[in-house]
TrEMBL record:
Keywords of the record: Repeat
InterPro entries xref list: PPR_rpt, TPR-like_helical_dom_sf
Family in the record: Belongs to the PPR family. P subfamily.
Protein name per its UniProtKB record: Pentacotripeptide-repeat region of PRORP domain-containing protein
Taxonomic lineage from the root: Eukaryota, Viridiplantae, Streptophyta, Embryophyta, Tracheophyta
Source species of the chain: Populus trichocarpa
Residue stretches of each PPR repeat: 217-251, 252-286, 322-356, 357-391
Cellular component annotations (GO), alphabetically ordered: mitochondrion
Keyword S-adenosyl-L-methionine: no
GO biological process terms, semicolon-separated: mRNA splicing, via spliceosome
Length: 512
């Protein structure tokens, strides 16, 4: 099955897979004081609210950031907040460059560079991202890491072609990471870029093409195993796993964890438990992540009792339950329609001083929605806001849709205002839902105001939002508002090309 493994036996020590988190770490560093946290929020809000592109950002940064404030941790935390807030990528880039030019108290770190690069690549501003990588390679080469390489390659693999991704890898070797000899670790990053976006065919092609140049190690095999898992073909995954073992690669905890996760996601919980036992027999100690995966798997199999049993075994394995483990059990309870028990578990988390994260809220909101409890959703929403917690994009979109569909449009507006007030730029999907809900209720003025706030912060509106606003503003005889909207769109497009799906203004649209 695997011409893929037509290679010589290779030995390597076990390493964990090199991973890029799906979400950059956004929380402030543990060493950040309350004063620093306030300053991070203040500057992030100033950057987000800064009118773009009507005024340059640099003078504003100079005015609001005293030199003593510009520390390494401060820059990392501000960029983390800008990432979470879906800020305009060019603003984040300008802030990062501003920090580089003021290094009296600030020492640039790979983390700050990676966050800036991730913001640009996520918005598909690849030209700007490339320019930054080339520049950093010349001025601060120590900032270039495998993680920054992975950020770029993963986004290119996701949004561009196979050939363009290979060209990007070659460009990094020849023009960016100059003087660095590429080996199996860099090759693993390229493979993982394809595997994480479920392009297994391309990953196998790269492996066959390049494995002689980069002799693989067990991490390489785990990455390909991950690719099979992401393809949801457990039979092919198992065939590859046994071929991998046959070729002399010793399975690591990651190898077992990938297989367990694959079976759990397919609902084959008994098979997942079988592999878990196989893992223990091989003296490969299960990690908290492995147990958490099994708890999730028990939920998929609708076995709340087993999920609770696995959770209760965590301290017996000399492990300590964290937010992720609690979230897994909450998810299992919700899947088994035991919403009250899930709520009680949230109370237990609070009692044990284990903080909620976005997954906690998202799972509970989903459970309350499925149970038909509008009051429960609204109550939890208000508690979340009272805690000053800012949900992530998918939770925002889910809440906005729920509020708009269930005649709670004022709560949708409240959520929008809360996010903007916190210095966040709500995702355009949230704006689409809110504008649709407002316009369908004859509240086009408020829909215009929300769209304007998005444009002012340097975020494009979608074609659907523009078309709806155009129709309703003309019906309401608010041609002045439509003209203002057109001017803002054209001004933004002059410096910031829209991403796919966003509105592209032309003379045929709107007013002449």
């Amino acid at each position: 099955m695997l011409s893929l493994l037509s290679l010589k036996k290779t030995h390597s020590t076990n390493h964990h897979l090199f991973q890029i988190p799906k979400r950059l770490f956004v929380a402030l560093s543990p060493t950040a004081t309350s004063t620093q946290s306030i300053e991070v929020e203040r500057i992030a809000r100033i950057i987000n609210d800064h009118p773009f592109p009507n005024q340059p950002l640099h003078p504003t940064l100079t005015h609001h950031i005293p030199p003593t404030l510009l520390t390494t941790a401060f820059v990392e935390n501000v960029l983390g907040r800008l990432f979470a807030a879906h800020s305009n990528g060019l603003k984040a880039l300008e802030f990062f460059k501003y920090s580089l030019n003021n290094q009296t108290h600030f020492s640039p770190s790979p983390d700050s560079f990676e966050k800036t690069l991730h913001i640009l690549a996520r918005m598909r501003y690849f030209d700007k991202a490339w320019d930054l990588m080339v520049e950093i390679g010349k001025t601060h080469p120590f900032l270039l890491t495998l993680k920054s390489m992975s950020i770029m390659l993963c986004k290119i693999a996701k949004f561009r072609s196979y050939e363009e991704t290979l060209d990007a890898f070659e460009k990094m070797e020849k023009r960016v990471f100059v003087g660095r000899k590429f080996g199996v670790e860099e090759f693993n990053v390229l493979l993982r870029a394809f595997c994480t976006v479920r392009k297994l065919k391309e990953a196998k092609s790269v492996f066959v093409k390049m494995h002689e140049r980069f002799p693989p190690n067990v991490k390489t095999m785990n990455i390909l195993l991950l690719g099979f898992k992401e393809s949801r073909d457990v039979t092919a995954m198992e065939l590859f796993y046994h071929e991998m073992v046959k070729r002399g690669f010793k399975p690591s905890s990651s190898s077992y964890g990938i297989r367990i996760d694959a079976y759990c996601k397919k609902g084959y919980f008994a098979d997942a438990l079988r592999i878990f036992e196989e893992m223990e027999r091989a003296n490969c100690l299960p990690t908290l992540e492995t147990v958490t995966t099994l708890i999730h798997g028990a939920g998929v199999a609708r076995n709340a009792m087993k999920a609770r049993e696995l959770f209760d075994e965590i301290p017996k394995r000399n492990l300590q339950a964290d937010t992720g483990a609690y979230n897994a059990l909450i998810s299992s309870l919700v899947k088994c329609r035991e919403v009250k028990s899930a709520i009680q578990l949230m109370d237990e988390m609070e009692k044990n001083n284990i903080h909620y994260d976005d997954m906690t809220y998202h799972t509970m909101f989903l459970g309350l929605m499925k149970s038909g409890s509008i009051e429960g959703v609204c109550e939890l929403y208000h508690k979340m806001i009272d805690r000053n917690f800012v949900p992530k994009t998918r939770t925002v979109v889910m809440l906005m849709k729920f509020f708009c569909v269930n005649s709670q449009i004022d709560l949708g507006l409240n959520l929008w205002g809360y996010l903007v007030g916190k210095g966040y730029c709500p995702h355009h999907h949230a704006l689409d839902l809110l504008v649709t809900g407002l316009c369908s209720r004859g509240r086009s003025h408020e829909a215009f105001k929300c769209s304007k706030q998005s444009l002012e912060r340097g975020i494009h509106v979608s074609e659907a939002v523009y078309g709806m606003l155009e129709r309703f503003l003309l019906q309401s005889n608010m041609t002045d508002k439509l003209g203002e909207l057109n001017q803002m769109i054209e001004k933004l497009q002059s410096v910031l090309p829209p991403s796919s799906g966003n509105y592209i203004h032309s003379p045929s649209n709107g007013m002449e």
